[in-house]
C-alpha cells in the first residue's frame, strides 16, 4: 500500500521528509562505517571476519521481517490468528524460488565489505551507483523491458561519470595511512561484481514478485531465511579454521556492530521511502549522501577531492535524475511499465530485503 507523504505526518512533519532525511543519514553513515570498520587503526592485525558480519546482518533482518510480517498477518486475519497458521505462508508454496536471489545477495553483501576495505568512502559510493546500469541491462534482457532514448543517454552519462572517478582513483596515490591496506583494483573489481549481482538479483526478485500471493514482508522473510544457508557455507569455506581458532566475534568492536545494524535496519528506511517518497526526492537523498560522504571523508579520512572527482560526481548525479525522469507513454505500447516504477516496487527494496506492505 502506497501513501502520499504530505497526507501522513509525524509530529506535524510530512513522513516523506522524515524518511528521506533518515535515508540520507543511513546511506552516508553506512558507507563511512563500513569503510572505517575495515581500515580503523589499532585493528590492523585483528580484522573481523566479514562472513560472520554478513550472517549476523541476515539474522537481524530475518527477525525484523518476521515480526513485522506476523503483525501484518494478525492485522489482516484477526487477533485470533496463531503462529502455526502464519508459518505455512513462509515455508510453503513456491518459497524455494527465493533461494537463488538469497545466494546472490549473500555474495553481494560479502563483496561490499571487500570493496569498502579497498576503496575510499566517496569512490565506493559513486561507483556503486553502477547498479542502476546493471539493473537496467538485466531488465531489458530478462524482462524484455523497453527503455526510451532519455534513459539510454542517462546510462551512458552514468557510465562515463563512474569511469572518470575510477580512472582518477586507480591512477592516484593516496596519502591516507589507511591506503597501505587498500588495493584500488581489488576494490573496483569487488564493487563492479557487486553491482552486476545486484542487478541480476533485483530483476529476478521482481519476476518472483509478479503475480505473487504472499505479502512482500513474507517474501522478505523467505529471502532472509534462505540467505542463512549460503552465509554459513561461506563461513565454512573461507573462515572456518580462523574462526575455530580465534572465535566467531574476533575483531568485533562497537564500530563493527554499528555497521551491521545500519545495514540490517537500512531496509526499513528504504521501505519508508518507497511508501512515502517519489523517485525524484530519493535521488536528492542519494546525491546529498554522496556529497556529504565526500566532505566527511576529507576531514576524517584524509580524502583528496580532485577536479576529475567533482566532474565524475556531477555526471553521476545528473544521470540519476535524468534516468528517473518520466517518459511519455506511447499509446501503442499497451502494458508498458516505466522501469523506475518497478525499481521503486522491488529493486531498491529487494536489495535491502525489506519493503512496503
From TrEMBL:
Keywords per UniProt: Membrane, Transmembrane, Transmembrane helix
InterPro entries with a match to the protein in the record: EmrE-like (IPR037185), Nuc_sug_transpt (IPR007271)
Main location: membrane
Name of the protein: UDP-galactose transporter Gms1
Membrane topology: Multi-pass membrane protein
Compartment list: Membrane
Assigned GO CC terms: Golgi membrane
Molecular function terms, GO-annotated: UDP-galactose transmembrane transporter activity
Biological process, per Gene Ontology: UDP-galactose transmembrane import into Golgi lumen
Membrane-spanning ranges: 17-36, 48-73, 119-142, 149-167, 187-205, 217-236, 256-277, 284-301, 307-324
